[in-house]
Amino acid sequence: MAELSTPHRRWTPARLDVRLKLALLCTASLASLQMQLYGLLGLLLPFALLAIARRASLGARIRELRWVFWILALVFAARALFTEGAPLVSLGPVAVTRQGLQEAVNACLRLALMFVLGGVFIGLTPTGEIKAAVQWYLRPIPGVPAARVATMLGLIARFIPVIFAEAARTSEAQRARLGDRRRSPVGRLATFGLPLVRRIVLSADRLALAMEARCYSELRTEPELAARGRDFLAFGLGLAMLAVALAV
């Protein structure tokens, strides 16, 4: 009987070795602290387009990301109103300054870049590979339970789509009960936040019971991690992109 050949899968950036992807993500997070407007935009725009193109596999819709926009709005207001500099618009005891607007835009772009990069990384990387990569990095450190920490981080990554789904269901239930028509923002936050937290805690409790019932152990067969020439080439190109973003 002739052997069945394994179909060759075309290499894409999503298939980059997870250890190199994680290293690029951490490097981009640190480098973004020193980037300015054009560098941040040069990194954010292509990854935002990638996230929009792969929104089905990322498991999140724009309506479910409203809390991200609220965080960005609060950060923008705080930086714009409370950064010293040349005032542009005075609002009583506070003023919007030119330096404040620059800092506000840069801070929001940095946060948006981290949200997008983190979402693309989690959405396009299997949870088992993330766990294996974290464990690989932590294993040489003495005194650190690498398997346990990697398991916790893997569960956190797995729970992010669950949180989005629970937020969507809670929002729909709130609208069905006309909770979104409350005038008080505190009341709207309470009617949305408390049920959401309860749903998340119950989901975590069910997951813990399921893992215990299946005799889950940290000693598991990990996925094979192998970096090849194309992976290192893509890693080098990623570092070059970060260097260019830092220079502009």
Write a brief structural summary.
Helix content is 69%, strand content 4%. By secondary structure, the protein is mainly α.
Task: Tell me what you see in this structure.
This protein is mainly α and 248 residues long. It has two domains: 16-125 and 228-248, no CATH class; 127-222, no CATH class. Helix content is 69%, strand content 4%. The chain contains nine helices and two strands, in the order ααααββααααα. It has helices spanning 18-31, 37-53, 55-58, 66-82, 98-124, 127-138, 146-176, 185-213, 229-247, and strands spanning 87-91, 94-97. β1 (87-91) and β2 (94-97) form a beta hairpin. α1 (18-31) runs antiparallel to α5 (98-124), α2 crosses α9 and α7 (146-176) packs across α8. Mean pLDDT is 80; it is low at 1-8.
How would you describe this structure in keywords?
single chain, 248 residues, mainly alpha, 2 domains, two-stranded antiparallel sheet
Secondary structure blueprint with pairings:
Blueprint: H1 18-31, H2 37-53, H3 55-58, H4 66-82, E1 87-91, E2 94-97, H5 98-124, H6 127-138, H7 146-176, H8 185-213, H9 229-247
Antiparallel strand pairs: 1-2
Helix pairs in contact: 1-5, 1-9, 2-5, 2-9, 4-5, 6-7, 7-8
